[in-house]
What does this fold into?
Amino acid sequence: MRRRLRRTAAALLTAVLLTGCAPSVDPIERLGRKAAQRVRPQSPPAEQAYRRWGLTAPLSAPPRRPAHPFRLASSASAHALPPVADHIATTDPVVFLTYDDGAENDPRFVDMVRELRLPVSMFLTDSAVGPGYGHFARLRSAGADLQNHTLDHPSLRGLPYAGQRAEICGQRDRLRARFGVRPRLFRPPYGAYDRTTLRAAADCGVTAVVLWRAATRDTGLHFTHGPHRLRPGDILLVASDDDDLDGPALRERTTRLLRRIQAEGLTVGRLQDYW
It folds into this structure.
């Protein structure tokens, strides 16, 4: 009996010693390890994010292969004037969202573009962007495309060639220096241009001058011509706060427009895919 008790005591002592030698893990340290192993949370996919941004249904994906993309004439040369358009002839059920100037820097708009995977084109003016180029770097990383809207936003029509060229090429060079991009699309301020504008734009590497068929206003969409309904291929301008000082914020204006786009059986396409 004594011998059996000694063996049991020895076994217990060995177990205690072994347990004592094992490194103990502090509970807080264990939680820290688990937290470190967690994957950083990602933005919700577009099909789940729509409610967060005020939509009642997810945006439909645009076609992977655009139908009837805008093409230059076969006779076009390096000195040909760029085409001007506010609409792209396509059978795809898409419209295109564009934004001008760059003064309205809303950080949450970056989240909106990223989470909805929203293909937007930003036509930037250097004097309006000011110190906000970092905001547009974040937008670009979220999928936005950055294009040319002159250095100082003058009305170009009637200005001499040298002045127009300085405005267009100057902003081209600024965007290239800031982002390493060479914009090939150009929007003249106020939509005002003349043949001199087209010559200057061509000499600055512009391949197309982009206008708009409809623009947002506080009362809804304002159409420049044609039927007052959206059509596949329409280029739309989401007006800046300077154009509508008493209107809703940029995200709300975008949401309202997206609701109308969906209600008319359309979705948002990437402008650069069609040009």
Notes: The first strand starts at residue 84 and ends at 85. The chain is about 35% helix and 15% strand. The chain has two domains: 2-37, 49-63+77-274.
